[in-house]
Amino acid sequence: MEIYSNENEQMDALRRFFANNGKALAVGVVVGLVALGGWRYWSGHQETVDAGASAEYQQLTTAMQADKPQTLDAVAKFASENNNTYGALASLDLAKQYVEASQLDKAAAQLQSGLNDTKDANLQSVINLRLARVQLQQNQADAALKTLEGVKGDGWSAIVADIRGEALLSKGDKQGARDAWSKGVASDASPALKQMLQMKMNNLS
Predict the structure, then answer these.
(1) What is residue 67's DSSP assignment?
(2) CB-neighbour burial class of residue 185 (10 A; exposed 0-12, middle 13-18, buried 19+)
(3) Are residues 110 and 168 in the same domain?
(4) Lowest mean pLDDT among 37-51, 56-70, 187-201
(5) Which of 5, 90, 135, 179 could form a Cys-Cys staple with 143, CB 3.0–4.6 A?
(6) How confident is the model at residue 41 (pLDDT cuts 50, 70, 90)?
(7) Residue 205: is its pLDDT beyond 60?
(8) Which positions carry the signal peptide feature in this UniProt record (predicted)?
(9) Same domain for 146 and 89?
(10) Residues 139 and 72 in one domain
(11) Residues 6+ apart with CB under 8 A from 115
(12) Measured between alpha carbons, how far is 67 from 61 in angstroms, rounded to an integer?
């Protein structure tokens, strides 16, 4: 759906990174935090758990189909039982299914849960952006503006500007929307995104 188009490339890159480098991440964390003799056992155990979560995530999300509720339930169960990056990714995938089914309350709940499952700043930014879009669809402009405050990093500035402009416009603040979109146009965004923001500004006139 259009609601997800601006973040798809970043989301796919994050998913591939964690799927392909989960083991290395687990080992790196252990090496950095544990310096005593027991670290080898812990490392091996954590690596096994991480690899298992990655494999299960791939299996469940690949099989997920909107017309088969049992597949959605399986992903929801996985997300609730894995308070880690894979749980957060599962929540994102499940939220997308709920949005496409117009079950916005369930989508928002999954995204909120995903935020609590990961400490990765980029993944948190993706989740916050998608949550803000869902909140806009729920006519919760103030909540969307608050959610956007959780998006960190200059690389997201144009997308944030796009959503902020939509939220402000829904509140009747045309000047605020114009200012937001203007900042997006002035940012280091893709030509396509800049053109879209400029068109929105032109439509205000």
Answers:
(1) T
(2) middle
(3) no
(4) 37-51
(5) 135
(6) very low
(7) yes
(8) none
(9) yes
(10) yes
(11) 88, 124, 127, 128, 131, 150
(12) 14
